[in-house]
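Worked problem 6 (solution included).
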Amino acid sequence: MNNTIKITSFKCGGFAIGISTSHTTFDGLSFKTFLDNVASIAAKKPLAVTPCHDRHLLAARSPPSVTFPHPEMLKLNDLPKSNIFEASTEELHFKVFKLTSNDITKLKEEARNSVGGDKSTRITGFNAITAHIWRCKALSCDDGSNPNRSSTILYAVDIRSRLEPPLPKSYTGNAVLTAYATATCREVEEWPFMRLVETVREGATRMTNEYARSIIDWGEMNKGFPNGEVLVSSWWRLGFEKVEFPWGKPKYCCPVVYHRKDIVLLFPPVEGGGDGVSIIVALPPKDMNKFHALFNKFLGV
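Solution. The predicted structure is:
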């Protein structure tokens, strides 16, 4: 896939920068570095960061050694016709759900105060939000006929600091791997919220140096994709909206089109929209109505 940049000017004096890129070229942190460097070049300044492009740092071992089971991965030949990365051909409704900082605090308190909750466990905003999305998504596409159906949520983990030795902070490439959490629909519905949050948290905790190397080696041997019911892709704190171009900071950064019903995107609010997070969801109309109702129900709205 080619990397392309297009600028569209508007009569009001504003303009939009559209960028199409491949995930093999950039992950979110690398793309932020790219934007910082574009801003520096536009301002006729030295590069903000000198990129490290050494892809050998993430090469598979020789010989490859898969030392963990990887249920979050599926071989190419075993991929279902419909998977999370395929653009949907069915009718989808799009909606931006918003969680204020108070909503996020409420979710964290729900986890902390739930039955069996460990008061000493650190509950991050991301883990609480992801657990909230998981239960809404799992139950919105479940007709109740198979409560033992397995639901797996995926999310990206930056492995730069998890490897031994760590990658250079200036590493510019794709240095994220997919963490996962799995439970049955019955468990997602009945578990205390803290249990869901902890299950999400375990996905990131699992991503040690050896586990990451095992996934990389699995990919070398099997060629495949992450596999799950829903993938949470967080652009929430990557800082795209904080890039200082000579003409100012962006008003907003988001996808232009979005046709993947099993990928949920997290973004910071539009400038002036306060604290919190914006959640972009695309679902068939019936599933969207149920997702919306569950989203509000679990927030106590």
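Discussion: The longest strand covers residues 150-158.
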